Amino acid sequence: MNRFVLTLVLLLLTACSNDNILQEEDIQESVNDENVSVYGIDLDQFSVEENTVRKGDFFSTILDRYGVSQQTAYQLAEVSKEVFDIKNMQIGKPYHAYFDSTQTLVYLMYEASDTKMVLFSLQGNMGAEIIEKPITTEVKYQVVNLQNSLWADIQALGTTPLLALKLSDIYAWTIDFFGLQKGDSFEVVYEEKFCEGKTLDIGNVFYAAFDHSGKTYYAFYYDDGEQDSNKYWNENGESMRKAFLKAPLNFSRISSGFSYARKHPITKVVKAHTGVDYAARKGTPVMSIGDGVVTSAKYEGAGGNTIRITHNSVYKTAYLHLSKYASGIKAGARVSQGQVIGYVGSTGSSTGPHLDFRVWKNGSPINPLKMESPPATPIPAEKMAEFQANVERSYAKKDSIQIYAYYREIVLAPLNISFE
């Protein structure tokens, strides 16, 4: 029986290896090889000192610490300026100084970003070169059962919170992330991009299934080559994008809902509150939920700084209590879906920073949380077969990762089998 299991495991691991799934050891080895060949610095011949750019530092003062003259520093800056302008060095960025056996500075390596370094050479042909750090991509699978919030629960699993932002972007038109409930869950197959072990970004999400309020919302990545900004679709080939976003700002909580009989927190008078209050920190960006034209952007008494937008002949929206308006936002300005139009504040009659968001349909106020939004153009009929094949590949990718993880953790460990 063990021989059968071992054979099955070997086959599964081989298949996963062919798909480049979770090959951490191979990735690390390639990174190390790349570092040696790209940097071209034999560490056995040099001693290294690590430091960071301090407040008040200049390129010349950094080099001066290591015995380099002002004249040499100037010459190096001049011959390097076509590659990297030393004025762009930033406080807090690390650099590495390489010394030969006589403690003479030979190289200065400045880390310009997470993925780019600048190597200054002080011997031979003085100059600089840009070194791009190698970026690796892993395909990962994650299941999250929500207990607190999407952001917090993803972090609790040791997964980058960038995944929460990616999912919120994909489902922005489908799920109200302020209305997530304990017991909701999601599973997702996605790309995570790394540079020297540090997460840089989340790439494509190949498959996602979000269980929310008893319903499952699927999302699949598919690039039809025609819509640059629209690459996520449900299982029926309908766009995940809609005419309106579900909410005008990211990650907050609802402090007051839509009601025709709410006691005002300041006046204590019971009256209609035909909007939704989103509690958020002052300065939180507020977005237009759809394309439209700003009809007014002005102070409106109890509503404070308010922006009103007409989206079409049916829908209008308003954004109240803003601290300030975004640049260019004024009456007559055209705005696009997701464009930042202002920032959360507490102007007017307000007990604290929040956004009062309101929607009108055919002139009558409606509950923004229950507003249905029509989908964007679906996948054309002639591309449906290709899309369905892509969906099947996404399911297969998910299943292969699940099987790999199961046998690695459940079967290999008890049998003391290791392929490390």
Give a description of the structure:
- The chain has 420 residues and is of the alpha+beta class.
- The chain folds into 3 domains: 93 residues, Nuclear Transport Factor 2, Chain: A (Roll); 98 residues, Nuclear Transport Factor 2, Chain: A (Roll); 118 residues, Glucose Permease (Domain IIA).
- Helices cover 24% and strands 33% of the residues.
- The strands form 4 sheets. Strands 11, 14, 15, 16, 17, 18, 19, 20, 21 and 22 form a 10-stranded antiparallel sheet that branches. Strands 1-2-3-4-5 form a 5-stranded antiparallel sheet. Strands 6-7-8-9-10 form a 5-stranded antiparallel sheet, with helices on both faces.
- The N terminus is likely disordered.
What attributes does this structure have?
420 residues; 33% strand; Nuclear Transport Factor 2, Chain: A; 3 domains; single chain; Glucose Permease (Domain IIA); 10-stranded antiparallel β-sheet; alpha+beta; disordered N terminus; 7 helices; 5-stranded antiparallel β-sheet
